[in-house]
Amino acid sequence: MEETDPLTIRRADDVSYEPVEAADGLEKGVLIDEDYGGTEVAIRRFTLTAGGQVPKHTNEIEHAQYVLTGGYTVGVGDSELKVSTGDSVHIPAGAVHWYRNHSDKPGAFICAVPVGNDDIQVLE
After folding, report:
1. Longest alpha-carbon distance in the chain
2. With helix as H, strand as E and coil as C, how does the chain read?
3. Which residues, given as ranges, of the chain have pLDDT below 70?
4. Among 61, 82, 83, 104, which residue is least crowded by beta carbons within 10 Å?
C-alpha cells in the first residue's frame, strides 16, 4: 500500500480574513492552498457586507462558488443572477463578472480555484 501525506486540518479560528482592496466590503480567508495541503485546488471563504460590492473584473482561472449564507447578485457577462444560501455558481476563466449585495444582511461564499497564481484584471 502506498503511503500518503498526513491529513491537513485548518480550524476556523486559525483562518484570518483580509479586506480585498479592489472591492467595497469584501473579505477573504484562505482555507486551503499550497501552504495548507492543497496541491491541485485552493479553497477560499469570502464575506460580502450588506451593501458591499465587487467591481467588474476578470480572472485568468475558472472558479466554482457555493453560497454559505445570505444572498446577493452576481453579474457574469451580460447576465445578472440572484443567488442565495445553497446555490452554486461556476465562473469560466476570463469571464467578466461582479457582485452586489443589495440586502441588509452580509453574505458568505466558498470559492474553489486551481492552485497557483491568478491574473485579476479590474475593469471599472
Report:
1. 53
2. CCCCCCCCCCCHHHCCEEECCCCEEEEEEEEECHHHCCCCEEEEEEEEEEEEEEEEEEECCCEEEEEEECEEEEEECCEEEEEECCCEEEECCCCCEEEECCCCCCEEEEEEEECCCCCEEECC
3. 1-6
4. 104
Prediction pTM value: 0.89
What pLDDT does residue 6 have?
63
Phi, psi of 105 (to 5 degrees): -130, 145
**Considering the domain 12-122, what is its CATH architecture?**
Sandwich (2.60)
